[in-house]
Amino acid sequence: MILPTVRASFGRSDAIHLVDLLARRDPDIRKAALARLEQEGPDSLLDDPRVRSALLTDPDVKAPPSLVFYVLVRQALLEGGIDSAATADFVTSMVISFGSAARAYRIFDDSQEEFHYLVDLIDQMRTASESPQAVALGVDKVFGEVARHFTGVRTSLNLLSDRYMWPGGGDPVNRLLREVTHQMER
Length: 186
Known about the structure:
By secondary structure, the protein is an all-alpha fold. It has helices at 12-23, 27-40, 43-46, 49-57, 65-79, 85-99, 118-128, 132-137, 140-148, 150-165, 172-185.
């Protein structure tokens, strides 16, 4: 079972690194970012579009890939109207898990069942959200939320893919259709 564990892996040093990237050696911005971090917590930085920009462009980035993926997923979901850090955490965990070569189509490393379409995986989540294991682990609500917001999650992941993973790649007609569909769903 894929669990939303990415956010829990971020530590204080990751947050300070984001402050440093955001401040770009400007002491006033650094002071304000540190105050915001202390008052509002790390989500205030993770949700800031300037942090995303710094993570993608600053040559001094030393953030772990999971942090970069979380920020990209979180902000794509926010743009799509899904404001749930738990959903972003789970979707990021899925992206990282399925991004491993051997895991591209399997929920578990040793699973025989393969999922070639996201909709099939989401269908399994509706069942998984009701399982005793999901309830015991406290992820039943997150699974249900991702299943309910499937269209928004899919659209957000398409945008993330088009912008950051394969910009300029892929079938231009499909990209255009996805963009039109995204605009109509808003």
